[in-house]
Amino acid sequence: MAIRSSRFVLVLSAALLLAFCTSASALFFDPVIQAKVWADRIDGLIKENKNAQVEAETQKFISWLKKYDQNYPRLESFIGTAYNQKATAEAKQGKYNEAANTIRESHAWKPNPGNIDKVMKYEQNDAAQREYYAKALEFQNKRIELKRQILNLVQQKEKLVNELLKAKDVTKEQLEKLQASLKELSAKVAAARKEMSDIHAAYVKDTEKFRKDEIVFNARQAAVINAKAQTAAKLVTAIGQVETRVAKGLLTITEKYKWSWSGLEELLGKMKDLQVKIMDLQKQMLGIMDKKPLTDADKKKLLELKEQLDKLLEEQNKLMADLEKAFMDTKTFNKLTPDQQAKYLEMFKTIREADNVIDKTTAKIEAFLKQMVVKYGDLNKDGKIDALDLAQMARLLIGIRPMIWPWNPIPAADLDGDGHLTWADYNLLKEAVSGDRKTFPVDPANKPGDMDGNGVIDHEDVYMVAKYITDPKSFAKIYGKIADVNGDGKVNMEDLSALIKNITTPVVPVAKDGTVASETMVASGTGDATGATTGDTGTGDAADTLDSGY
């Protein structure tokens, strides 16, 4: 009996405790506070742009709010906001029809004239989306079709290349046939790519309004478009892989032809023709360099020809590198027949000899042009040689100079060509300023034998040439070129005799009015810098030698 009584008391206590807790919970529960917490959570999802979660949460929130809105009027504002948030989240996912239905549901709960405009906007977006999707689908399908066409064309190119790769050797005819076929296929590829570009441009223009209105695809539409885009991307990758193999195969075929006898003979012929062009150009330049003095037009022409020459020399160097590689490669050279080897050797030898001549002549031209662009004595570059230049040279000479020799801050100041700036240069400039000197020793316009540079061959020059013969070390090195009257590369009594002859048999020019000019002595012969056109001096005669070698 006591046990039963205890159990009854325990059960009664538990029941009373449960009843108290339930009443206390009901006493402290406030749906408005709970709604604010839920609304804040949804706002956080909106800020994170988690539209799918916003859609799900607002649907649950609306259902929960409708349980209490009759007893808690303050919850109505939460319901209207939640409906709008759900519709916006659906629209951002491209679910425009669903968004319109959400607003309709909101309107059924509580009619609002503004809802009509919202539904109309979502329905318009739904129609625009269907149009946009149709255009995108059409574009992607056409893109895939064109990419497949291009892939087929490049695969045809690869097939042609692979067929020729199997050949033991490549003839010129085979190479030309391949090039013609590839050119035709490449033209078709280019046409397809042009069509693709035009279609893409038209698509971008035609769908601009949808992007401007921020129309997006729904999940199903996006999946279809993305699948199409991936297919096109795979085709692009496949095209690139085939084109890479084609390019590699063409390189192999080109190399195979290049080192065949047909290719080497063509290469040798190109080199011969190129060297003839170079030598002809050099002859033109040497002809202008022989003129004394050079006019501004002559100088301009020389610089223009030098620019052309540099381009030809660059091309020649590339061809020569290929010819040397083929000649020195055992596998390549031994593949030729004995007759082909003999012919190669003969032509290659002639080309190398011509190359040496071209190099010498080019060095001569470059030295001449280097002097031509410098106006010696014009230190301040005002176009005149006067006291200002003399004063500037004096300031340089008396200034602090570096310990390392030679020292010459201005190329135009080195008048005796010894690489230094000295008082000897100052004296030469002083003579020019005073009018006693017309040219400097470094001037390419010097007359052979005109040792004092006054423009006249006289007895003073005879004295200086004689002194040079007996004591050449007392002169700057460049005077040796001036003293070499007969141009044989040596200064001896023959030059002295030639100089005396020039004085004893002067050429007296006649003026325009018919009178005999004053005692102006005109020297004969040309200096080394002019470039005599002989094979020994490295000029144009080698062109004839080259032709005879073939």
What does this structure look like?
The chain is mainly alpha-helical. It has 4 domains: 126-258, Topoisomerase I, Chain A, domain 4; 267-372, Up-down Bundle (Methane Monooxygenase Hydroxylase, Chain G, domain 1), CATH 1.20.58; 377-442, Dockerin domain (Type 1 dockerin domain); 447-526, Dockerin domain (Type 1 dockerin domain), CATH 1.10.1330. The chain is 71% helix and 0% strand. It has 19 helices and no strands. It has helices spanning 2-28, 31-47, 51-68, 76-92, 96-109, 114-165, 172-206, 208-212, 219-258, 261-289, 296-328, 330-334, 338-372, 387-398, 423-434, 459-470, 479-483, 493-504, 542-549. Helix 2 runs parallel beside helix 4 (76-92). 23% of the residues are buried.
In short:
It is built from 19 helices and no strands.
Structural class: mainly alpha
Q: Roughly how many Å is the radius of gyration?
A: 48 Å
- Broad CATH class of the largest domain: Mainly Alpha
Number of strands: 0
Q: What's the architecture of the largest domain in CATH terms? A: Orthogonal Bundle
User: Which consecutive residue ranges, at least 5 long each, have pLDDT under 50?
Assistant: 16-27, 507-512, 514-550
Kindly report the average pLDDT value.
84
Categorize the overall geometry.
elongated
Domains, number: 4
How would a crystallographer describe the biggest sheet?
none
Give the CA-CA distance, first to last residue.
140 Å
